[in-house]
From TrEMBL:
The family this protein is said to belong to: Belongs to the class-II fumarase/aspartase family.
SUPFAM superfamilies documented for this protein: L-aspartase-like
GO MF terms held by the record: 3-carboxy-cis,cis-muconate cycloisomerase activity; lyase activity
Record GO biological process: 3,4-dihydroxybenzoate catabolic process
Gene: pcaB
InterPro entries: AdenyloSucc_lyase_C, Fumarate_lyase_CS, Fumarate_lyase_fam, Fumarate_lyase_N, L-Aspartase-like, Protocat_PcaB-like
Keywords: Isomerase
Residues of the Adenylosuccinate lyase C-terminal domain: 360-439
Entry-linked PROSITE patterns: FUMARATE_LYASES
Name of the protein described by the UniProt record: 3-carboxy-cis,cis-muconate cycloisomerase
Main EC class the enzyme belongs to: isomerase
Species name: Microbaculum marinisediminis
Length: 447
């Protein structure tokens, strides 16, 4: 759905331009011009006919409303498009327009050309997001914060480590999308049932030349009803959108006033409430998560459309016409929101550090237990620390104070050892090294 009111929130204006009806017709004209030139090279149609078709494709100004109205009766836009182009073409080309091709050839190939541009836009946006994530990961490589499991404070991590996890996921999504595009954006040229019978013995020659002129890979066989290519692209776009929703969702949770560790960028008119003056609401996160909810349904519909009948489908193919563009648009919309958010994210290290003390410092219980284990044994250390943590919570006192009053802990670690064990910066494992590894891999990709 395209709406002047809603599309700016959920979609990408640039992607909508790439996938507009005018771009679709431009891609269809590119197919027809390349087809005529390829067939002239093979001696199937006269050279002057191909020249007339090429000229007609260059000067054709479609009446979108008329083609759209005729599409309702024809069943697909290629039929009225070819009819209008033929009427526009001068002789001797008029009788050679669309020679040997079928409607699905021009529509599928035009989609491949359009989606190639759409994929390039997605890749540019993904690279921009990766750069922003890498910068935040490096900047906060050692910014200690609570790690959370089941929405509860668990153990210390660094904010850079959290962001590196996001970056690692985005890298996988980008690689998978590139593979899906390489396999899926290919020429479609098979004629009525895929055999190119109307072209005859020149079929292979024409098909190879057509692919060369359009700079599209040429598959071994027509894929009119073998729809795994588009389904794979759509599925990867949905996965990317879901990954972006994970990032946006994490930021929304960090933005809660009770947590307050990070926030989406502030700005005039951004994130307010129509009734509560104090509110600072997330803006990007709800839009991205809404897009992800749509993406999963669209991907499911695309998979449902895959089993198409015999050599030409009755409905499944038609369903793809709007599903795939919608997936591109909402993926691009989500990318724009998340990239903008990460680039200007408000990070609050002091609040992160303060939140490590929630529960009177009991978040460091595992670190304390592991420090005691070599002396007391792991099971006994667990028993001693569990009792100390329960006291800290019940008495609303810092765990450090309880430890200094507990003989087994003082005897096992000493006062200095207790302080070290309860310092979150000493219990980060490979968090900082992991940030270095992930960011280094991103820089290798970028270079």
């Amino acid at each position: 759905m395209r709406s002047d009111l809603l599309s700016p929130l959920f979609a990408s204006a640039e992607m909508q331009t790439v996938l507009s009806d005018r771009e679709r017709v431009r891609a269809m004209l590119a197919f027809e011009a390349a087809l005529a030139a390829s067939e002239a090279d093979a001696g199937l149609i006269p050279a002057d006919a191909a020249a007339a078709i090429t000229a007609a494709c260059a000067s054709f100004e479609p009446d979108m409303a008329a083609i759209g109205d005729a599409t309702r009766r024809a069943g697909n836009p290629a039929i009225p498009f070819v009819k209008a182009l033929t009427a526009h073409c001068a002789e001797p080309g008029r009788g050679c327009v669309h020679w040997g091709a079928t409607s699905q050839d021009v529509i599928d190939t035009a989609n491949a050309l359009m989606f190639r541009e759409a994929m390039a836009l997605i890749d540019r946006e993904t690279l921009a997001l990766g750069d922003a994530l890498a910068a935040q990961a490096e900047a906060h490589r050692s910014t200690v914060m609570p790690g959370r499991t089941l929405l509860q404070p668990a153990l210390p991590i660094t904010f850079g480590f959290k962001v590196a996890g996001w970056l690692d996921m985005v890298m996988r999504c980008r690689a998978a999308l590139k593979t899906a595009a390489e396999q899926g954006l290919v020429l479609q040229f098979g004629g009525a049932v895929g055999t190119l019978a109307a072209i005859g013995s020149k079929a292979t020659t024409v098909r190879q030349e057509l692919g060369r002129r359009l700079d599209l890979p040429v598959p071994d066989i027509a894929w009119h009803t073998a729809r795994d290519r588009g389904a794979r692209i759509g599925a990867e776009l949905a996965i990317l959108t879901e990954a972006l929703a994970k990032i946006a969702g994490d930021i929304a949770l960090l933005m809660q006033a009770e947590v307050g560790e990070a926030a989406e960028p502030a700005g005039s008119g951004r994130g307010g409430s129509s009734t509560m003056p104090q509110k600072r609401n997330p803006v990007a996160a709800p839009a991205v998560r809404a897009n992800a909810m749509r993406a999963s349904g669209l991907a499911s519909a695309l998979l449902s459309a895959m089993p198409q009948e015999h050599e030409r489908g009755a409905g499944g193919w038609h369903a793809e016409w709007t599903i795939l563009p919608d997936l591109f648009e909402i993926a691009a919309g989500a990318l724009g929101h998340v990239t903008e958010t990460i680039a200007d994210l408000e990070v609050r290290p002091q609040r992160m550090r303060a939140n490590l003390d929630i529960g009177n410092g009991t978040l460091m219980s595992e670190a304390l237990m592991m420090a005691l284990a070599p002396t007391l044994g792991r099971q006994e250390a667990h028993h001693v620390v569990e009792a100390a943590a329960r006291r800290a919570i019940a008495e609303n006192r810092p765990l450090a104070d309880i430890c200094r009053e507990t003989d087994e802990i003082v005897d096992g670690l000493g006062l200095e050892g207790i302080a070290t064990a309860l310092d979150p910066s000493t219990y980060l494992g490979i968090a900082e090294a992991t940030v270095d590894t992930v960011v280094s891999r991103w820089k290798t990709i970028r270079n």
